[in-house]
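Researcher: Let's do a round of design. I'm pasting the structure tokens now; please hold your answer until I've finished.
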């Protein structure tokens, strides 16, 4: 007989008062344990061993009989004496373990039930004495490859008397220190991967990544053997354990599945949520067959994961909520701000996210900031302005015209001028407007300073005198002043056939001496270090992808006027920065109509990083509620983190067009639903209900924009009511033709729907659909698969609820 070192091991050491009452969570019940723990007799030890080989079982039973003779007052039992009638077999084993001082487990052969029970005993924190007949070598190589029990020590035996003597010499058994690891809230799942990437295993990992629940894993390809210490550590710091059991017909399945059995026992005893996912239909060991879920097709895997992921998410939310200070009636305190930046100028200062695009704009090295509607252009406009406006040496002119103010200018002036005269007249118009506005702004912000500074007062007086000749007494704000100037120029227009030169026309349209105003403004601004010109809303009211040539000319001449003003001021060593904020469809037209396309640098607001959207939301919640902590903690305090197996935040993001405005609108709807239902937090059901309303909102919004471009086509998007989410181009064009589009404009209509993001393009059955905003609206690249008959159109998830679209016919989202 030989005796190895370290013959006892333990898991999370728990006092008898804890062990000997029903646990608060049982995997078999998926709730609190429902077993009756009354009247169970305690024992000094339990012997666990397999029935096969029978000679080993007989030896162990003989040792038990011998020990009873030596010390009759000590109650020792074998597993064969457990009362299992009318209940789950392992429930009887579990109760017996909880009322025992220690466990003696035979590991002579590899037996899944025994490995699971050893793991369970360790998870309960019970001392375990492994015993082994080393002369029996049937599974020696498998044990060596498993590598979990060979380092913990065991008692060697060959006969019953020798085993009884060795065991008595070991008593009393002292448990080893238990692991004490904090739950890893960042990565709450532990995953046991096999050494073979089967289709089911690949699908398992795909679902886990999609769920956004971070996980740690044991990868047999990277680390062939898992130590018991590492297994205990990983289980202890997890909320859930998932193991993919390989088919018994696969090479190496025996070792991998044995490892999974022991780790599953550890996890179940520790109250973790466990999923043993079995490839194929296999008869499972009786102890844990009730917690094994089998699949015969990889498509079944996502559904089978829902239970364990849902339980982990619930526990994770509770843990995170406890870590965050939660005010009373939290949900009613959450203020995400207005979806329109114009309505939250002051509040933006509290939670504006300073993106790379913002910093680039603030440096002033570009002339254009472009983005889709709702992409945050106006928020950056105000943020840049606020970052500069308090510098006395800077003059910041922020203008917000509206496109409709130019309709009369187009009709009365541009329609009657040759193309050369149009450009000259509009450039002069913008130059005049900007000079007047710079003078007006300087007089407003420097008034108090001029009263205190004698030298500056004189220059201020000259500027005031020059501007007075051009200012209207009831000028109002910039929009009103601009409209009046347009009306005045229209009234002064001499009419067709006037025979005037460009310079004569300019003198006719712009009253008094422009040169005097020009020189006076430039002289005054020499005292400034930098002049900043910020222009937003110029394209407001212009139809999406429906801007006219005259509209683009108005924009192009504005940019030319800013360049002229920049040259003039920089000649006097005064810095000049200009930022014009535009929709990206207008920018596309501008590039087409501009000969020198590289003249103006553009900052593009296209967001494809969900981390930006996380920061956008968390800053707003922090500002309104006082919550602190990471996004994960704060989000969990306000919203359910998952819908089924899918990350809730990602679910919402996927149903927006990746625009800040869309996200805010969706979340506003969700909070509204939750408050109306009396909920303390936005639940998954609240999100799904909000999706219905949001989908209707965004569908209606896009429908209005399409109507602006095609006013004769009535409600074209509703032709797709009840359609499948994915469809061939021919099906889509057929519906558009039914909606009223002319045959020669069907391709144009498809392009418009692609540009809006209503449609995406999916190439192949596995690839996800691609939408225009993911390709910076490069439609030529987006539609290339369609032109080669390799793709289908996919309705964006944002619109599917409103249109009651059917599921995808292939693998895309």
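Researcher: That's everything. Go ahead.
Model: Designed sequence:
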């Amino acid at each position: 007989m030989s005796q190895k070192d370290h013959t006892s091991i333990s898991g999370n050491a728990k006092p008898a008062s804890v062990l000997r009452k029903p646990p608060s969570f049982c995997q078999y019940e998926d709730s609190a344990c429902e077993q009756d723990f009354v009247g169970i007799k305690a024992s000094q030890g339990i012997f666990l061993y397999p029935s096969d080989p029978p000679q080993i079982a007989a030896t162990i039973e003989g040792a038990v009989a011998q020990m009873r003779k030596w010390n009759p007052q000590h109650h020792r039992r074998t597993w064969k004496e457990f009362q299992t009638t009318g209940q789950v077999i392992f429930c009887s084993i579990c109760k017996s373990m909880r009322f025992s001082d220690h466990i003696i487990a035979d590991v002579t052969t590899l037996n899944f039930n025994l490995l699971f029970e050893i793991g369970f005993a360790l998870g309960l924190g019970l001392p375990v004495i492994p015993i082994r007949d080393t002369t029996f070598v049937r599974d020696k190589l498998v044990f060596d490859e498993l590598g979990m029990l060979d380092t913990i020590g065991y008692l060697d035996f060959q006969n019953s008397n020798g085993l009884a003597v060795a065991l008595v010499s070991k008593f009393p058994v002292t448990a080893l220190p238990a692991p004490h690891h904090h739950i890893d809230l960042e990565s709450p799942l532990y995953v046991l991967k096999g050494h073979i990437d089967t289709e089911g295993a690949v699908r398992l990992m795909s679902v886990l990544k999609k769920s956004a629940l971070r996980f740690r894993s044991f990868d047999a390809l990277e680390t062939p053997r898992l130590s018991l210490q590492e297994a205990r550590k990983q289980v202890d710091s997890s909320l859930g354990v998932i193991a993919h059991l390989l088919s018994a017909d696969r090479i190496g399945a025996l070792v991998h599945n044995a490892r999974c059995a022991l780790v599953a026992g550890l996890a179940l005893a520790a109250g973790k949520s466990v999923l043993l996912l079995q490839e194929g239909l296999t008869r499972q060991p009786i102890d844990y067959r009730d917690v094994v879920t089998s699949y015969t097709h990889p498509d079944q895997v996502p559904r089978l994961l829902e239970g364990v992921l849902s339980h982990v998410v619930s526990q994770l939310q509770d843990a995170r909520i406890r870590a965050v200070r939660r005010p009373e009636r939290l949900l009613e305190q959450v203020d995400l701000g207005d979806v329109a930046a114009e309505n939250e100028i002051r509040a933006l200062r509290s939670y504006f996210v300073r993106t790379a695009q913002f910093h680039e704009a603030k440096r002033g090295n570009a002339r254009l900031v472009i983005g889709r509607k709702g992409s945050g252009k106006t928020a950056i406009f105000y943020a840049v302005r606020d970052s500069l406006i308090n510098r006395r040496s800077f003059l910041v002119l922020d203008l917000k015209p509206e496109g409709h103010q130019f309709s009369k200018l187009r009709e009365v002036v541009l329609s009657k001028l040759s193309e050369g005269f149009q450009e000259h007249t509009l450039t002069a118009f913008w130059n005049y407007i900007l000079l007047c506005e710079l003078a007006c702004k300087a007089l407003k912000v420097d008034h108090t300073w001029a009263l205190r500074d004698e030298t500056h007062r004189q220059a201020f007086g000259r500027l005031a005198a020059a501007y007075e000749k051009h200012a209207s007494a009831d000028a109002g704000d910039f929009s009103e002043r601009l409209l009046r100037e347009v009306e005045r120029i229209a009234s002064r227009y001499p009419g067709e056939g006037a025979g005037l030169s460009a310079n004569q026309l300019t003198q006719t349209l712009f009253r008094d001496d422009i040169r005097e105003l020009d020189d006076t403004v430039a002289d005054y601004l020499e005292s400034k270090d930098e002049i900043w010109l910020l222009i937003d809303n110029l394209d407001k009211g212009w139809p999406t992808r429906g801007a006219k040539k005259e509209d683009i000319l108005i924009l192009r001449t504005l940019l030319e006027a800013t360049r002229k003003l920049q040259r003039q001021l920089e000649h006097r060593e005064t810095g000049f920065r200009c930022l014009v904020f535009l929709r990206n469809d207008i920018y596309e037209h501008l590039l087409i109509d501009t000969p020198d396309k590289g003249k103006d640098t553009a900052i593009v607001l296209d967001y494809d990083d969900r981390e930006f959207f996380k920061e956008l939301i968390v800053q707003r919640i922090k500002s309104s509620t006082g919550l602190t902590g990471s996004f994960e903690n704060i989000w969990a305090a306000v919203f359910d983190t998952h819908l089924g197996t899918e990350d809730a935040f990602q679910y919402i993001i996927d149903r927006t067009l990746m625009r800040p405005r869309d996200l805010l609108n969706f979340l506003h709807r969700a909070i509204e639903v939750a408050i109306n239902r009396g909920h303390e937090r936005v639940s998954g059901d609240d999100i799904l209900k909000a999706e219905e309303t949001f989908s209707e909102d965004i569908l209606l919004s896009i429908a209005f924009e399409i109507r602006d471009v095609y006013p004769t086509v009535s409600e074209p998007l509703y032709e797709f009511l009840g359609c499948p989410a994915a469809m061939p181009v021919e099906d889509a064009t057929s519906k558009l033709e039914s909606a009223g589009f002319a045959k020669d404009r069907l391709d144009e209509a498809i392009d418009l729907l692609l540009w809006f993001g209503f449609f995406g393009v999916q190439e192949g059955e596995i690839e996800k659909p691609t939408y225009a905003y993911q390709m910076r609206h490069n439609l030529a690249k987006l539609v290339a698969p369609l032109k080669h008959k390799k793709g289908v159109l996919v309705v964006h998830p944002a619109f599917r609820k409103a249109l009651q679209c059917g599921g995808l016919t292939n693998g895309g989202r």
